[in-house]
């Protein structure tokens, strides 16, 4: 398949490009920034530029699309809510409309987030029919994108799908995110002989973490085998607290850090929603393969 990948030059986009190529597909990237090292053709532009997107889809005539372009760092939502809404919501409308008008038979996988469910204290894993209850501005923009993709599928008959992944990480993730930030600090402590403090936020929040390589494999399988009009949960099924996560990283690095609370890193206590994975298993056979310990080892060795 020829696959148009938005956000291709980002952290997840680069892994997605490699996953698609390894499976024999032909990705074409779309990103706002030039990326001369990207191993595929790249169209440079803003995801909100509807005419450019239509022209790109018309010229490329993709068989499928993977929509990753977004402002994806939740704590940044309060800093510029207008920008986040315009990219995450209007950008989704622009790519959906481009596919609807210029490649109506092409599949489009719109990636949102498991945060669309909020932080429910559910005794059982949530399936894809659970109500959306976003509890942050970021999650609200992703829930809007999620609902819009479904409306295009059901109102216009577009073969669109939605992916709702939990947190994912891996080598190369920017240090603005939690795990790369902890790893950078712990490696610095190790270089200093274990002396110093590790600056942390809320240690009680629980998160389900996936390896980005497992996640992009799920995206590729959904493009190949997923059912149009459906949403798909993507999770490891194993949540741990931020405190437990830091202890694992420190153990692997051979460091026993002193923890210092940083008010700028504090977030309200919440938890990743437990997710039912039966749909993605049934339709694609996907299962996470890379344990968190291996992900952390890979990140520590970069």
Could you walk me through the main structural features you see in this protein, from its secondary elements to its overall organization?
There is one protein chain. The protein has 302 residues and is α/β, with parallel strands linked by helices. The protein has a single domain (2-169, 209-236, 273-288), classed as Rossmann fold (3-Layer(aba) Sandwich). Helix content is 40%, strand content 18%. The chain has 9 helices and 12 strands. It has helices spanning 11-22, 50-60, 81-102, 137-156, 178-191, 212-225, 242-253, 278-284, 292-300; strands spanning 2-6, 26-31, 42-44, 64-67, 107-111, 160-165, 167-169, 197-200, 206-211, 231-234, 239-241, 258-261. The longest helix has 22 residues, at 81-102. The radius of gyration is 19 Å and the shape is globular. The two termini are 32 Å apart. The mean pLDDT is 93.
Fill in the CATH topology.
Answer: Rossmann fold
Could you give the count of β-strands?
12
Q: How helical, in percent, are the residues?
A: 40-55%
Number of domains: 1
- Compute the separation of the termini in Å: 32 Å
Summarize model confidence as the mean pLDDT: 93
CATH homologous superfamily name? Answer: NAD(P)-binding Rossmann-like Domain
Instruction: Report the total helices.
Output: 9
Write the layout of secondary structure elements.
Elements: E1 2-6, H1 11-22, E2 26-31, E3 42-44, H2 50-60, E4 64-67, H3 81-102, E5 107-111, H4 137-156, E6 160-165, E7 167-169, H5 178-191, E8 197-200, E9 206-211, H6 212-225, E10 231-234, E11 239-241, H7 242-253, E12 258-261, H8 278-284, H9 292-300
Parallel strand pairs: 1-2, 1-4, 2-3, 4-5, 5-6, 6-10, 7-9, 8-12
Antiparallel strand pairs: 9-11
Helix pairs in contact: 1-6, 2-3, 3-4, 5-7, 7-9
